[in-house]
Amino acid sequence: MNKLSLNNQILLGALLGVLFGLWFSMLGQESEISQSGLYAAKLTGTLFTDLLRMVLIPLVFTSIVVGVANLRSHQQMNRVWQVTLIFFMSTMAFAVVLGLTAANIFRPGSELQIAMFQNAMQDFQATQMSLPEFFAHFLHSLFQNPIAALAQGNVLAVVIFALLLGIALVIGGERYRNILTLMQEFLELIMMLVGWIMRLAPFGIMALVLQLVATQDTGLLTVMIKFVAVVLGTTLLHGVVVLPLILYLMTGVTPYKFWLGGREALITALATSSSAATLPVTLRCAEQHLHVKRDVAGFVIPLGATANMDGTALYEAIAALFIANLVGVELSLMQQMIVFATAMLAAMGAPGIPSAGMITMVMVLQSVGLPAEAIAILLPIDRILDTFRTMVNVEGDLVGSLVVQHWIKRDGSST
């Protein structure tokens, strides 16, 4: 194993996880070998994700403070803001349009009967929230006591406070130079810890993939095969074709070079189903393998982990039309435009944790009068779909950091 690079070790771990997961699945859940293996995998996988979450909040806080503070030129800072937000909004909008188009062409759910899922819907209680209530709740979550946000792991509130603190350090200038130096040294220490944690990554990812493969309900996947195929096909189209094409056209970076550099982060996202938990790995890949400047990566990627969710937005758009087909409701063009807007807003407000899209999916359904209880139909198969949409979410953050860096360099050389 020592002769293999960490990238290849992680890839090997993922492949072994698939193989062992299939073996345990064939043996059955009652087998002693399966039970012992799944218990060990759960311990290992939980240890790995807990270690990543341990460094998550201090890493987000210090990377954004340092990133913003080092963008000392106000003109440059404004340009980073502008390019980042334009990129995030554009790719998310494209993802939702792609999802709606695929759902209208293939019409998943039209061949199924809602009666098949009545028991699941009756047993599920959805917490409903109107669009104005969600918007008010979203705004409230942005501005909180920073100490409480740090302690509770509220990534979005930490991002906002770090942005404001970074801007204050820029405006304060040399007077607060010691604080900036302290933050820079703390960030270097956190990145050292991330390097240590990544030594466990091959084993952690093998354990997480093993659990995912071994515990899937293949019977339900077969029943909903058309929906699963449309979601996975469209998600992979966006991740394998659209985002790499945007990257190549805007920066000249080839897909091969990108995937080679970002492989650790993409596989970790696939295994953990959490863009937040993957964030330490994403930052490491951006800086060390893709050679994004720390200032740019430290600003774009933590912000993207909370606000740039291409895969989630695409999934919620398809899922809304799937449920509409399932209950026999034909959504008009205006209603689909409402789905477009709410899917983007809901995806931006979704926390970067496993199956977070399910939390905001209720709002998307409610916006066009679909039964919120129908979300219960999606829950049993959401875990497998969540892995791929999280990988695309993380890919969008990496692509965004490269695009922003390219445009900043271009603007700097043209002035």
UniProtKB/TrEMBL annotation:
UniProt membrane topology term: Multi-pass membrane protein
Pfam families hit by this protein: SDF
Signal peptide: none
Gene3D superfamilies: Sodium:dicarboxylate symporter
Keyword set, alphabetical order: Membrane, Transmembrane, Transmembrane helix, Transport
Annotated GO CC locations: membrane
Locations listed in the record: Membrane
SUPFAM superfamilies on file: Proton glutamate symport protein
GO molecular function, one term: symporter activity
Name of the protein in question: Na+/H+-dicarboxylate symporter
Phylogenetic placement of the source organism: Bacteria, Pseudomonadati, Pseudomonadota, Betaproteobacteria, Nitrosomonadales
